[in-house]
Amino acid sequence: MIAVQLFGETLSFWTDSGVFSSRRLDAGTELLLETLPPAAGRTVLDVGCGWGAIGLTLARLGRAGPVVLIDVNERAVRLTQQTAELWGVAVDVRHGDGYQALLPHERFDLIVTNPPVRAGKGTYYPWVAEAPQHLRPGGALWAVIRTKQGASSFAAQLAAHFPRARRQARRGGYEVWVGESEGV
Asked: What is the DSSP string of 70-103?
């Protein structure tokens, strides 16, 4: 278990080896959380959730409406569920690869991710390409990526699949990118 300071609160998360950044909140995820707009009442999908830092924090602090968290790693899913139970927050945690755990009709206002860059572009570029079909009109994909680990090519992927793509923030070698879908 680790303790993380976010938005003036100390939050304890269940973590374990074999899950990304198991000993501390990584700087990229922290930047993404600080940059995300309040989404109270808006549906959020945390794809590649790991131990749940993004989706659980948004749900716990009332910064999002219904939250679905998905990860391919069964240990990550279990840890996310344990933290949700510890906090008493109602979230939907699913095991699956990318969007495969979603029902065909499910759409979200926000999709958030700190993609698994080390798994390779073949793993997370489809998340970008398929994101628009999982967003509601006016929805957006928010992602953080290390500048030196492919931020420019990630930005090109966003631009290829979204009518509007922009860098929202940059700090400490990380960039937050937003792909916005067409509005209503």
From this structure: EES-HHHHHHHHHHHHHHT---EEEE-SGGGGS-
Q: Is 66 marked active-site?
A: no
Single out the catalytic residue among 20, 108, 154, 162.
Answer: 20
- Which helix H or strand E contains 169, and what residues bound it? strand 164-171
Catalytic residue status for 7: no
Q: What is the CATH number of the domain that holds 129?
A: 3.40.50.150
154 is catalytic: no
What residues make up the domain containing 156? Answer: 2-180
In this prediction the pTM is: 0.92
| Active-site pick, 13, 108, 115, 154 | 115
pLDDT in tens, 69-119: 999 999 999 999 999 999 999 999 999 999 999 998 999 999 999 987 676
Q: Domains in the chain: how many in total?
A: 1
